[in-house]
UniProtKB/TrEMBL annotation, chains A, B:
Its EC number is 2.5.1.10. It comes from Anaerotignum propionicum DSM 1682. It is an enzyme of class 2 (transferase). One of its GO terms (cellular component) is cytoplasm. Pfam families: polyprenyl_synt (PF00348). Its cofactor is Mg(2+). This is Farnesyl diphosphate synthase. GO terms for molecular function: (2E,6E)-farnesyl diphosphate synthase activity; metal ion binding.
Length: 295, 295
């Protein structure tokens, strides 16, 4: 296992331990909602968004503990979005990460509520952190996350994705979906982490910009891997885009050109990390890993 | 029209004007989500939660403008909860306030996303307000609202309501549902308003306590009116609880005893307003109106 993998695994272990702490405790009534929320929150995953938030906080000289509530909130928001995306009325997926989707286990009503519950919980955790220490740092981080997740961020990406389902997409619409559905939350994670770590507005904007580039490159690579890799390598069904007649970067531009676009975005993000200096080495390695996997 | 009605109508007009301001603007892509969000947000309604928040803020000497973002956020959270409650997987209602429910007009996928969008938008508005002026007041109001809406508030009330659907309820479970599903947000509105207006912790807790009593009394009265009033008087189908074989205060205790319980809670809330003094006259009149209607 190389150094990056070791560091990622350490982050993942740390984040999963803290996610437990920030999950609501079951009280007197039906445990089902808490089970449903935990089922999807603890279903594996690379914990990229909280990892990036915490790494960005450290990269500018902050303490990771300051970022924790916001990092955990981000993962809860990400998980809520997956639960709702999988619903029968949306993508109607039966499996995610090799396990039954939330609504297949807990029913559609509880899955909707489990998603809602995770979003509520994220809001509660961040509100608590802001109240505990009301400052431009805490409220700025919450603002970055709220905007990244919201109606001009992740949510509108999902709306447009659902809206154009089964229809061919123009390149600008596909780019809009990737920028919002995937990249907005990665952008928010890096920006929020930098703000919490005490970065100036200009530096925080550099983190945000790197995040947007990483997010889009990551999604393009995902489109490519859907075509080029085997199910064993990817750990999920391949050729799903083709089966769903989905417009992707690959169907629009072909594999080679798509790889070029992703590489260019990745290199631009790496330039930003280089300019920002030593503190960003982990983020630079992570960027390489996320946007240039060739398996 | 009596004085209270006039004042309520003035509040409603003011709140509806401001809700427009705080709604996200449509940008380049499909207007459907913005239409779906607006469809339910501007479907009438008494705007009780934002009205109470703003009135509480003024009652302790605050300016209503300080409460506005939080008041509008509360109404958006309330509306999101109605959209999701009406979904086929939940209560499966076709009509609300005499109009088709959100999913009957925009489809189930867009209704889920419109609900999500309103909750996201509430979070964005409150985060912006807190960032603009990070203080114990703003973050405390956001915290009160986040907790009132969340997994130990409104949401758990809905979960328990869904969980026990079609089963007979014990009195303590019915009380739990009313306290959480209905009263938690009224409690939060009054507490958040008082905090924003500059109340001490003790006074803010008095507002919260009054809110809980009003919320439960209001819900019990709703159960009673479902049995005693005509459809013309109520403006919605009556006897719906009986048709749905729903356990209510009326099925558990009968009409007379239910009215006694509601009256006692209402009187306790009114005592709190009396103790808090002159500033709370509107809230006192509103409490009478909401918990003692006899038609």
């Amino acid at each position: 296992m190389n150094d990056l993998n070791k560091q990622m695994n350490q982050w993942i272990a740390y984040i999963e331990e803290k996610l437990e702490v920030f999950m609501p405790k079951q009280e007197q009534f039906p445990p089902v909602i808490f089970e449903a929320m935990a089922y999807s929150l603890f279903a594996g995953g690379k914990r990229l968004r909280p990892m990036m938030l915490l790494a960005a906080c450290e990269a500018v000289g902050g303490e990771k503990e300051e970022g924790l509530p916001f990092a955990c909130a981000m993962e809860m928001i990400h998980t809520y979005s997956l639960i709702h995306d999988d619903l029968p009325a949306m993508d109607n997926d039966d499996y995610r990460r090799g396990r039954l989707t939330n609504h297949k286990v807990f029913g559609e009503d509880m899955a909707i509520l489990a998603g809602d519950g995770l979003l509520h919980n994220a809001m509660e955790i961040m509100a608590d952190a802001c109240y505990h220490n009301p400052s431009k740092k805490t409220t700025g981080a919450m603002q970055a996350i709220a905007h990244g997740a919201g109606i001009h961020g992740m949510l509108i990406g999902q709306v447009v994705d659902v809206f154009y389902e089964g229809k061919p997409l123009e390149a600008n619409i596909l780019e809009f979906i990737h920028i919002n559905k995937t990249a907005a939350m990665i952008r928010a994670a890096l920006k929020a982490g930098a703000i919490l770590g005490g970065a100036t507005d200009t530096v925080a904007e550099s983190f945000a910009l790197a995040g947007e580039k990483i997010g889009v490159a990551f999604q393009i690579l995902d489109d490519i891997l859907d075509v080029t890799s085997t199910m064993e390598e990817l750990g999920k069904p391949i050729h799903s885009d083709e089966r769903n007649e989905k417009t992707t970067y690959v169907t629009l531009y072909g594999i080679e050109k798509s790889r070029e676009i992703a590489c260019k975005l990745s290199d631009e993000a790496i330039s930003i990390w280089n300019e920002l200096g030593e503190g960003c080495i982990f983020l630079k390695d992570l960027t390489e890993y996320l946007t240039k996997r060739t398996y």
